[in-house]
Backbone:
């Protein structure tokens, strides 16, 4: 079974649970990082054998600006 870590900035954290539920229905083991996250280079320092995939959600600038 693949183990997935999802992390996101505070503004997107309310939406992580929906993504986690969908991935769990697909058979993945999902962990949610609740610590700070300042971007895709801010990966938690975890043992490499604990997580197989990291999903980092981020904000995109609006094209309307």
Residues:
């Amino acid at each position: 079974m693949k183990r997935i870590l999802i992390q996101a900035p505070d503004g997107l954290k309310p939406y992580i649970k929906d993504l986690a539920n969908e991935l769990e229905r697909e058979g993945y083991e999902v962990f949610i990082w609740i610590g700070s996250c300042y971007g895709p280079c801010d990966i938690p320092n975890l043992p490499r054998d604990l997580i197989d995939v990291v999903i980092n959600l981020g904000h995109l600038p609006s094209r309307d600006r």
